[in-house]
Amino acid sequence: MDKEIYNRYHILLVDDEPLIRESLYEILRIEGYRAQMVQSGEEALEIVKQGKVDIVVTDLKLPHMSGIDLLTRVKEDFSEIEVILITGYGTIETAVEAMKKGAYDYITKPINDNEIKMIIRKITEKKQILEENKNLRKIIQKTHRDSFCGMIGISEKMQKIYQMIESVASSNATILINGESGTGKGLVARAIHHCDRNRKDKPFIEVSCGALSETLLESELFGHVKGAFTGAIRDKEGRFEYAKGGTIFLDEIDAFSPALQVKLLRVLQDGVFEQVGDNTTRKTDARIIVATNRDLNDLVSKGQFREDLYYRINVIFVELPPLNERKEDIDFLVKYFIEKYSQKNNKKIKGISDEMRILFMEYHWPGNIRELENAIEGAVIMAKTEIINKWDIPNVSKFMSTASLAPTNGKSLKKVLEQPEKDLILSVLHECNWNRNKAAAVLGINRTTLYNKMKKYNISFVKPTKL
Length: 467
Fold this sequence. Notes:
Elements: H1 3-6, E1 10-14, H2 18-31, E2 34-38, H3 41-48, E3 55-59, H4 67-77, E4 82-87, H5 92-100, E5 105-108, H6 113-143, E6 147-148, E7 151-152, H7 156-168, E8 175-178, H8 185-195, E9 204-208, H9 214-222, E10 223-224, E11 236-237, H10 239-243, E12 247-251, H11 258-270, E13 272-274, E14 281-283, E15 287-292, H12 296-301, H13 307-313, E16 316-319, H14 330-344, E17 351-352, H15 354-362, H16 368-382, E18 387-388, H17 397-404, H18 413-431, H19 436-443, H20 447-456
Parallel strand pairs: 1-2, 1-3, 3-4, 4-5, 8-15, 8-16, 9-12, 12-15, 17-18
Antiparallel strand pairs: 6-7, 10-11, 13-14
Helix pairs in contact: 3-4, 7-8, 11-13, 14-16, 18-19, 19-20
C-alpha cells in the first residue's frame, strides 16, 4: 500500500513517557499515517468514543488506567479497533494474557522501528482487504451475480458465461462447450437446459461418452433390440428417445468412434436414428449439447474427427476459463464448498486462515474447481476448529511446493529460506498444542532460540483460536 492509503488510518498513541510517545509519533508520521498522542487511558477513551480511531498503540503500564484496562474497554465497545501493547521484558507473560483478551500483538522495549511498522502495516493491510471485500460485495449486489444456476463466480469471464447462457438457452442450436477437466462443463449444460422455458420441465440426460465402449455407447444413445449383441437380453430404449423434447448432454464427444460420428451427424442433420439391431427409423426432438476438454479443430486436422460433424456441433461455442484464470472467484467457491460440506458433515466451519487463502491464490489448480472442492471437503472433515488451517488440508504439500517455487523477487537466500522455517515452527507448535518446551525439543533447539524465532516471525505465543 502507498502512503495515500496509510493516511486513511488514524493511530492513537498512549504513553506517559514523552520520549517514547514522540518517537513513535515521528516514526508513524514519516510512514504517512495520521497519528495522535495522549498520555493516559482516560484521554484515549474519550478520543476513541468519537469514532475516529483505527489502531491504538498503548503502553502496558499507565497511571490510573492500565493498558490492559484500556484494551478491555476498547474491545467491549469498539471491537473493530486493533490494539497493540508496549511492554518491558519483565511483563511479557502479562502481554500474552492481554492477547487472549483481544490485543492484536505486542512489542517489547526498547522499541524496534521496523517491528512496529511491520505490525501496523499488517493491520492496515487487513483493514484494507476487509474494506475492499465489503465494497466488492456492494458492487456485486448491484451489477454482478455471484452465482447462476449452480455456478459460482463474480469474475468478468463468468459474467459473460452467464449472459451467453441466457442468450442461447431458448434457441434449438447445438452447443459445444470446451474447457479443462473440472471447470464445470456439466453445470453449464444444465444451466442452458434450466433457462430454456420450453425444455426445463423435460428430461435432462447426461452421457459420459469416454466411460463406455463403442458398442455400449451406441446402445446407450440409440437403444437396442433383444439379441442385437451378446448380453442384449431385452429391448432397451435409447437416451435420444427417452429425452423426449428435453436436452441430451454428450460429455467427452471426442471419444466417438468414426462410425458413431456418422450416426450422430445424421441425428443432427435430420433428427432420426435406428436402434442397434433394428432397421426402424425413429425420431428425436432432443436438444443436443456436447462438451470436450480437447481441441476438436486439432483433431479434425489430424483426421480423428469429422470436419462436417465439427461444424454441426459448433453452432454456438462456449469456452470455460480454467480456475487459474478466474482466481477472484476462489473466495466465493471456498465459501460455497465450506457451507456445503459443513452441513453434510454436521460441522460449523466459518472459513479458511489467511495463510491458506494466500496458498490457494498462488496455487495453479490443474484440477480446477473439482480439485478445489475435493480439498475443501477433506479439510472440513479434518478441521478441529472453526477456521481451516493448512494442517487440515490433505496433501497440503502440493500447495506449499507451489508457493516455494514462486519468484524470489530479488530476495537473498536467507530471506527465501525464512518462510519454510516459519512454516515448520507453526506446524510443530500445532502438533504440540502450543507447548513451547515440547516444540523446542521436537525442533532440536532450546526454548530461548524458539522464543526468538517466534518473535522474529511474529508467531503468536498462545494457541490461536481463529486466524
